[in-house]
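Write out this protein's structure.
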Amino acid sequence: MGNGVSRTAAIALTVSVLAWAGAAFAHNIGGTDAAFVAAARGPDPVPFAYLGAKHMVTGYDHLLFLVGVVFFLYRPREIALYVSLFSLGHSITLLAGVFLDLHVEPHLVDAVIGLSVAYKAFENLGGFRTLFGRQPDTRAAVFGFGLIHGFGLATKLQALELNPDGLFVNLVAFNVGVELGQATALSLILVAMTFWRRTRAFGRTATAANLLLMLAGFVLAGEQLAGYIFGGAVS
């Protein structure tokens, strides 16, 4: 029974990782959404909030990082603290990046986002304590990576034809949508994690899950570095 649950949990996590990775082309704002943004004139907060929520829900790299962040957090206060630090970080650079026209290379910032997933999984595995005898400040790391994730969000908007008329209102609405999408996705993640933690298999599969999470982070980073070196669309 235990081995069956372990295999099921491992397969479920693998499928989830592959599904998020397979959503790469949905992570960009394109098609009718891009056309709407290009045609927007003046403040239009509701559609921009929808776009923000949609972008975060399909943001497999952001969600994988959040899985790593909450993996061993059990108290609601701790979860709220770390998610708030992440949200504060990506809100600052999302708004500042677009409104102040601060440009970063999309492939490189997305590569660092991939590495942030690997970093958190490595931390969850106790890698820093094992290799260096101490662990970096997790709160500072989550906030710092939040800043990087925000630049990743900003590059997606900067790739579009944003009209300066109503830009600030639309950016704030987009960011609110991002937070709503994040809250929705995180709620589902926490429900799944709660059920998983209640099984006897959790202790046996947690290490394998974080190894898969770290592998996914390196794969995401590698894809972006390859795109930067050889040329290619940003996912």
